[in-house]
Automatic annotation (TrEMBL), chain A:
Pathway: Carbohydrate biosynthesis; gluconeogenesis. One of its GO terms (molecular function) is 4 iron, 4 sulfur cluster binding. It comes from Peribacillus psychrosaccharolyticus. Keywords: 4Fe-4S, Gluconeogenesis, Iron, Iron-sulfur, Lyase, Metal-binding. Its EC number is 4.3.1.17. InterPro entries: Fe-S_L-Ser, Ser_deHydtase-like_asu, Ser_deHydtase_asu. This is L-serine dehydratase. The keyword Ubl conjugation does not apply. The lineage of its organism: Bacteria, Bacillati, Bacillota, Bacilli, Bacillales.
Automatic annotation (TrEMBL), chain B:
Signal peptide: none annotated. Keywords: 4Fe-4S, Gluconeogenesis, Iron, Iron-sulfur, Lyase, Metal-binding. Pathway: Carbohydrate biosynthesis; gluconeogenesis. It comes from Peribacillus psychrosaccharolyticus. This is L-serine deaminase. Its cofactor is [4Fe-4S] cluster. The gene is sdaAB. The lineage of its organism: Bacteria, Bacillati, Bacillota, Bacilli, Bacillales. InterPro entries: ACT-like_dom_sf, ACT_dom, ASB_dom_sf, Fe-S_L-Ser, Fe-S_L-Ser_bsu, Ser_deHydtase_bsu. It comes from the Bacteria.
Amino acid sequence: MFRNVAELVELAQSKNKKISTIMIEQEVEVTGKTREQILSQMETNLDVMEKAVERGLQGVQSVSGLTGGDAVLLQEYIKKGTFLSGEILLDAVSKAVATNEVNAAMGTICATPTAGSAGVVPGTLFAVQRKLNPTKEQKIEFLFTAGAFGFVVANNASISGAAGGCQAEVGSAAGMAAAAIVEMAGGSPAQSAEAMAITLKNMLGLVCDPVAGLVEVPCVKRNAMGAANAMVAADMALAGITSRIPCDEVIIAMYEIGQSMPSALRETAQGGLAATPTGRALEAKIFGLPLLKK
Amino acid sequence: MKYKSVFDIIGPVMIGPSSSHTAGAARIGRVARTLFGRQPEWAVIYFYGSFAKTYKGHGTDVAIVGGLLDFDTFDERIKSSFQIAEQQKMKIEFHEEDAVTDHPNTAKIVIGDHQGELELVGISIGGGKIEIIELNGFVLRLSGHNPAILVVHDDRFGAIANVSNILAKHEINIGQMDVSRKEKGKMALMTIEVDQNIGDEVLREIGELANITQVAKIVD
């Protein structure tokens, strides 16, 4: 069993295998299930992700009314062709938003690694596929590669906003996505690790401050930027850029930053954006509570 | 290593928006339904802590009723559980409680029909995982780290041995077992923590034993 990113990369390099293959082999060993069973379970998750994106792109609205419809706005904007950044980048952002809007609207999603950060990995996957034309098997592998990096983060740091802030949720999701994009684009295991490190470094310190305690504001847009971050970091790693701080040390830094984060900024809706006048006003409107004094 | 499977990271498939406030709530409702053994005619649901503060926005109420209707965490019908409950003439009442509980995501469910009643307290501990901490006034002691089953039975000799025999037959190792009863010879409870996940077939076999009233998985 690999315990950190260094071991994961070393395993892949010494056996001349992809990271997704290493993850699948470990899953076979740990669970005793067959390779076919494991691939088929991941295929189910992939199908759920694809349906969630499709649904979000048709336009959804959350129960509270706080979120919905932004994925559609972005797709319409892309069609106009006047965008400044990039088509695949914006497509990834739109599909990440689509997934989280569906989540907020009580739709079916696959937690990746959590419900609140479920948009980043599928958003990037279904955007880069237009350029890379992967087979279904390669799309399934994308999820195993993402899972392998998430596995390391979950065991060495945290993937919960309550424990480590948004850096642990969307930050982890973005790092996982970046690593998986690199593999799908033909990069090396080491480049996947670099992409993860570059992404996570730029998510460090991100707090979890949901308005009214709901998985909506700012979660949906944080998924958008998580996807953008992952796309750019993947390109940087594929260009040969490396992180001066090794991936495992970035993960530990993320953990320690999470430990020192005040509880008001860890999913309690007591600080940050949740405590702004507008955040408080929205909370009062949704739950009918008296406004808290500043 | 807290996480062992890649599907702890990529998964579970669930109805949003929150694994703890939606998926976990549905599971608490479903355990109550399973232990009751049939669809209740009425339900009174008490929310505590963060559940009490945010249940409307998270759909915790809709999810818990979905569970009472026997829907799994990924069942799309959860969304319309209120309408379905109404069609099936299930009466539902919600109470927001101020009392401070040990865990912020706590729900108490009282369900019943003309034949009987059941009261259960459940907590949602994150990632969709839940624990049942109280049943009909019995306090359940579980570590929460291992799969666990709950067996409601008549307090008769041999009942405990019969259950452990079935587990032994299926090569399931018991990690911890707790036995309690209200009065000698009356209703009794077994909470059994095991090392591996228990399939539905084993639960069915236990349920068919003499003096066993109800069997349910309470921790996955």
